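Sample 3 of the quickstart, ligand zinc ion:
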Amino acid sequence: MIQIPCPYCGLRNANEFASTGEVKPRPDVATATPAVWRAYLYDHRNPEGLVTEGWYHRAGCRKFLVVERHTQTNEIRSARPAGVAS
Amino acid sequence: MPEATTQAATTAPGDARPRLPGGAPLARSPIRQPPPTAVVGHWEVSRRHTNAALRLADLSALAKVVLRAAPESEAAGALGVPFGAARRVNVVATRPAPQLVVGSGPDEWTVLGPVDTQAEIDAALLALPGEHPRSVVDLTHGRALVRLTGAAAPAVLATICAIDLRERSTPNGKALRSLVAGVATDLVRDDVEGTCSYLLHVERSSGQYLYDTLMEAGATAGIDAAGLPEKEI
Ligand SMILES: [Zn+2]
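Result:
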């Protein structure tokens, strides 16, 4: 079971959240080629180790969070509101 | 405050929707009303009486209005209810009793008031001070609202909700949103005359499911269906 410490709601079961995937820089709209957009949307690193992911607390505060999670142990290193610098 | 009456609703030829004698549509909860029923304001509600120590009442007829605003805005300051808390505040100054203001999200407040008062609450929220953008939405007919009351309520609720309901975590006046029986639910601990009580607030389409699930969860604790309590009208 994964538990996510929501900065608004406290520690909650991950089934209250929707994962929005690894956080990565969005390509520049003016210059990105279709291949770059495709890679942004569909190519994921899926590493073993710490990843920075987006999670949406759909059954709680309905806020987007940025969560550091270890993909092997599911240890949550940090969770903060999206759009707020770490 | 609307009087409870026993006036019958009628239907017009070619229109199956029940109407009140004045022609206004009769509002009905998504939850089946245990008999006897009566018309209160625009609503058909149960007036069932029970002496059971653990009871579940459908409060869907109450006015429900949601305010979205920045937490640092003047409007939010005027309400004075932080996220995670629920307090009675005189939002509608002309009403004798205050309304229940629920800090239901970091930038969201749900105001619950007596039957048919949504327009007054709506106007009062729009008239709150400050220039910050805000949105006020009447959810009265879009949500289901039930009240579970009794000393056994925390134990019953704990069987279908993962939240720590003990006194130190979820005392009277605490508000939160979480999954209850798999449904995203606004949960408010709002004790009634010293007896533990919870308000549970869900999308209208989940109302009957939540009601049935709570009745089933409370069966061994002797739960009984109650009508809309007089003091809530
Ligand atoms: Zn949250």
